[in-house]
TrEMBL record:
InterPro entries: Diguanylate_Cyclase, GGDEF_dom, Nucleotide_cyclase, Rev_trsase/Diguanyl_cyclase. Residues 76-206 form the GGDEF domain. SUPFAM superfamilies: Nucleotide cyclase. CDD domains: GGDEF. This is GGDEF domain-containing protein.
């Protein structure tokens, strides 16, 4: 099992890290440097995997996003959706930060549902997330992003707290270009979705380059 898999199967990473370090110390005191080295490498793998995960939501973090985006070829198809929770400050102010944290965790789970195998979700910062969708065509990228928006809007949030409602706005960039360029375009489109009234997805039409905002 890889260190990253260990992090996502319910085993607390800090315990695994401490265990490998302790075993490495034990073997080192016995002069068994080969086994000590092996466990130190496992400890380093766990620490590295943990450094790429957001500690609250367990999704990937900004560091992972920044590492992955430059690796996508500028000549290939890449979609990047930037997601922002609508009026999240009012959720924290009304219900408290503990509930706000639970909302962020639930949103992260809902965003990761139904992603293609090579796609991933990363917490961009605060209440913003990024969905990175390599190799998908424009139509499927729009469908995936809007399905995530609808899934969150329809989620029974009142089960967490009576009266609670959560929606997201999404800016979706798709086409040929560097990952950083797509992220920048997605950020601009996210503001278009916000200006259009929130709980919407904004993207550029392939033929006219017109910005389209969509919701139910």
């Amino acid at each position: 099992m890889s260190a990253e898999n260990e992090l996502t199967t319910g085993t607390p990473a800090p315990d695994l890290l401490a265990l490998h370090e302790s075993i490495a110390d034990l073997f080192a005191t016995q002069g068994d440097w080969r086994r000590a080295y092996r466990h130190l490498r496992s400890a380093l793998d766990i620490a590295r995997a943990g450094s790429l995960r957001d500690p609250l939501t367990s999704s990937y973090n900004r560091r992972y996003l920044d590492q992955r985006l430059p690796g996508f070829p500028a000549t290939g198809k890449l979609a990047v959706a930037l997601v922002d929770l609508d009026r999240f400050k009012s959720v924290n102010d009304t219900y408290g930060h503990l509930l706000g944290d639970r909302v962020l965790c639930r949103v992260a789970d809902l965003l990761q549902e139904g992603l293609p195998p090579d796609a991933f979700c990363a917490r961009y910062g605060g209440e913003e997330f990024a969905l990175v969708l390599p190799g998908v065509n424009h139509r499927n990228a729009v469908w995936i992003a809007d399905a995530a928006r609808a899934r969150i809007a329809r989620h029974p949030w009142s089960e967490l707290q009576p009266g609670l409602q959560v929606t997201i706005s999404v800016g979706l960039a798709h086409g040929v270009g560097s990952g950083s360029r797509q992220l920048h375009r997605a950020d601009d489109l996210l503001y278009a979705a916000k200006r259009a009234g929130r709980n919407k997805i904004a993207y550029q039409d392939r033929e006219s380059s017109q910005v389209i905002t969509h919701s139910e």
